[in-house]
Amino acid sequence: DTHAHDLHQGRIPLMREDFFQQLEAEDLAVTIALIHMDGKRLMGRWSDLTGSPSPLSTDRHRLQYAQEFRGSFGHVGMAGIDEFVTPFIGGATNTPWAPDVLNADYLEAAREQGGIGGFMHPFNGSVATPEAVSVSEIPVDAALGLGEFYDVICYWYDELANAEMYYRLLNAGFRIAATGGTDNFSDVWRDPGPGASRTYVRVEGPVTVDGWLDGIRSLNTFATNGPLLFATVEGLDPGHEIRREAGESGPVHVEVDVASITPVSRVEVIVNGEVVHSEDTRGRTGQFSLEADVPVEGSAWVAVRALGPTSPVVSDSYAFAQTTPVWIVEGDTPYVSGTDVRFLLEAVEAFRGRVAARDRFQRAEDRAQFLARVDSAAAVYRALLREAEGRN
User: Fold this and answer.
1) 0.85 exceeded by pTM
2) What homologous superfamily is domain 228-335 in, according to CATH?
């Protein structure tokens, strides 16, 4: 789980040992527990951030504390760090941390410490227009080359909306791992347990927290709130790349293995954000396999997802699993969609207008630095758009 919490002013006086028992009960191999701030209060224990697994960790269950930054334009997680990046919050009115702060600064700081950063519970509700998406900084951060992972699955938010925006980012040429993070408060009785949203990572050798984080960095993941979804493209796991000669095209072979105690209604193969193959799997329970040859012209990315109905064994609105893609590169030109690049550019431009209108900065130089980075992101999209239009 990329995103669990132990303490959040809940009614349950949760000790470290109590929290770890929850992780054992859910049989979580790796849990990243995020220390954060709400208002003026630190949610967690300052001393728990060490950059190493908790002393409670065992050979089967590993807990490591990390940090969540909660800004006005989205929350980001920083895993694998050993020093807090401050302030813990930004854009919070009636607190000492009212000025807006870029999430990008925190994602960079995580990378500088040797950790990884990612997007927590990215979107909820409509993502159909650039204006709707402009409430989030994610298009800015992705253009700046920041963010190793993206929580497609989160208990609180809508997976299909998250996936739609994930596909747009992939279509702009950004390579980001699909992950799942619950965002539960373990001391709050009404919340689900940790592991309601999960990240499965291909790890070479014995499982360690560092190895698990490296697997996310290498894009070898799938995310799920229930179904186990193992998929290969031309025999390659998620995160790999297939090289083709210029002008080479043709179908690719996709193999899928599903294991699930909750019903799975359909399994879909996604190419460049579009469903190119959908298989009705109602009535198929437990473990089952399927395969398909899907057409691919030129460069592309290929991923697989599974969907199912509401279920008492899924702590979410519906069952959902999503793989990180396998990328296919023809010649030296990765796939980029001009339509999606334009969408993201317009979202960044709307985001800039939103930030400028708020004008929540203490100093003119802070405002200038913030907007300059947003302008840099917009310039990336304009360059991508010129390239995409030049190829068409």
Assistant:
1) yes
2) Immunoglobulins (2.60.40.10)
